[in-house]
Design a protein that fits this description.
This protein is mainly β. The chain is about 5% helix and about 40% strand. The structure holds 2-acetamido-2-deoxy-beta-D-glucopyranose (2 copies). The site of one 2-acetamido-2-deoxy-beta-D-glucopyranose has 10 residues, from loops.
Length: about 220
């Protein structure tokens, strides 16, 4: 009896080992897990913001604006992929061979302090910015915080699709988006498996191919 169970368990293990380990939960697409990920924009309301359909599934990258400062923008899927890792709960940092880490940082926008810019800036990231475990998208602050009603938005400015964070209302000329994690392999770990010889990337939930998810199926 025991050996029969063992044999069927082994057979199951053998048949499933080639495919990624998917974590299934009712009502949401199944996630995989990875220490590296890129970010892809999911336009959450294409009915009220039809112009933003153009950038659905575009990828997040940085646009240099000054020494050690980049703004998060969207680029077409043919653009190079920017890969990130999550450093515990300390924030999200770029996987890179640079001498200094660049991390996702939020702060008040100069032209409208009710909105937050989203930077990829030298140094540590904004704490609490992390990938959710059930829905693999970037959350600002604890995902269980009931007061966290904000959303990332995409805004067309200076001929760039800039990503910002709107804590309360979607600003004029912007459209709400989620930043969804796509599983990637980290390319700049050192021989000890660390980034920048000090950070241990955490395993996060992510999607193998977020662009192919039909959200209305869930
Ligand atoms: C992605 O956008 C669709 C609407 O197009 C929405 O139903 C779905 O909830 C969104 N997913 C996430 C993770 O925001
Ligand atoms: C990673 O987290 C540690 C604390 O756990 C912190 O000291 C370090 O500065 C963080 N690295 C980055 C790039 O934020």
């Amino acid at each position: 009896m025991l050996s029969a169970i063992l044999a069927s368990t082994l057979a199951l293990a053998a048949t499933t080992s080639a495919s990624p380990i998917l974590s299934k939960r009712a009502g949401v697409p199944p996630t995989s897990s990875s220490t590296g990920f890129s970010l892809v924009a999911n336009v959450t309301d294409q009915i009220n913001y039809p112009w933003a359909s153009d950038v659905n599934n575009w990828k997040v990258s940085g646009s240099h604006v000054g020494a050690g400062q980049s703004r998060m923008i969207l680029q077409p899927s043919a653009a190079p992929t920017t890969i990130f890792y999550q450093n515990g709960t300390e924030g999200i940092t770029r996987d890179s061979s640079n001498d200094y880490p660049f991390s996702i940082a939020l702060g008040p926008l100069y032209s409208d302090p009710t909105v937050q810019y989203v930077g990829i800036n030298v140094g540590e990231g904004t704490k609490g910015v992390s990938v959710g475990s059930v829905v693999a998208k970037v959350d600002v602050g604890a995902p269980t915080d009931p007061t966290a009603q904000g959303t990332f938005v995409v805004c067309l400015e200076d001929q760039q699709y800039q990503i910002r964070y709107a804590p309360t209302a979607v600003p004029e000329g912007c459209a709400p988006v989620s930043l969804v994690a796509k599983c990637e392999a980290l390319e700049n770990l050192d021989e000890s498996g660390l980034e920048y010889h000090r950070d241990t990337p955490a395993a996060v939930s992510c999607y193998e191919n977020p662009g192919s998810i039909v959200w209305s199926d869930y």
